[in-house]
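Task: encode each sequence below as structure tokens.

Item 1
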Amino acid sequence: MQIKLIAIGKTDNSNLITLIEDYTKRLSFYIKFDFEIIPDIKNVKHLSEAQQKDKEGELILAKTQTSDILILLDENGKQMDSVAFSSYLQKHMNSGIKTLIFVIGGPYGFSNALYNRANGKLGLSKMTFSHQMVRLFFIEQLYRGFTILRNEPYHHR
């Protein structure tokens, strides 16, 4: 199985980039992982929030196949602790799917088309985080999930 993370807009904070690269490298020892960034949409001040979400949704959907499992990282999604998340990953690996895609939306969330296509929603916290920070937090949780599955000491129970 391959895991892909899709996000809208590049990160300009070099400290975050360094940490994301570190956890991405660590994660590569466990699974094929791809972090894909879709560039910010140009001229957004001329678009409504709904139009911006629709354009971002089209770009995200263009990166998916019908056989992919698509999970939106959404504030109203199911929340779980790290151990439960590792089980969630294991369940998907056992199901025989080829690609599991997680998506971090733009500043206004997701389009209706993305919600309709999604196979599920995950919430990282009831707190609000910047879209830049969520990337790091989520990749770290993926890494943590795989260390839990391997009974490695990174996650202390």
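Item 2
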Amino acid sequence: MKLLHLDSSVLGPHSVSRQVSAAIVDRLRQSTPGLEVSYRDLTLTPLAHLTGSHLAAGQGAAPEASLREDIAAGQAMLEEFLAADIVVIGAPMYNFTIPSQLKAWIDRILVKGRTFKYSAQGVEGLAGNKRVIVAISRGGYYGSGTPAALGEHLETYLRWVFGFMGIRNPEFIFADGIQVGPEHREKAVAGALKAAGELAAA
């Protein structure tokens, strides 16, 4: 069984989402003998954001020389995603949504004919045979029913993206309110780590 672990926080060792995503992976390693884990830090080797030249290359045009390495990296990330049975993502909220590095990765895996297709019945996801677990960290409180819920475009976006690819029940572990104050941060991290430690085996 293969697990793909992705981090997207720019904060390095100070990142809560990285801490929680690592705890998730540790839990699954312990509960799943022989689990094969690959790790990718999307901030150390970021993909370029899509351009018209990227899209042209995707339609069969010869890629510009300056883009060949980036296109190859994006293709490798798509194949890596498709090969994974479990995907664990560290996703902090930046300005109410996902980090741009994570968006660049999503743009390379959301590919017609590989992870979804259109049919007479509508969109059909092609990557539904995966378990996706997301560690979310947010500076404030954005859960359902909170005053700021309308500003939440991280969890809602990722639920839609993975659902579009056929992954209907992604799992989320939250560390909310980490910028409200030290006590709030400590409580949020402890709660998220506890939830990670209680995850069902792979």
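Check on item 2: The chain has one domain: 2-197. The longest strand covers residues 131-138.
End of task.
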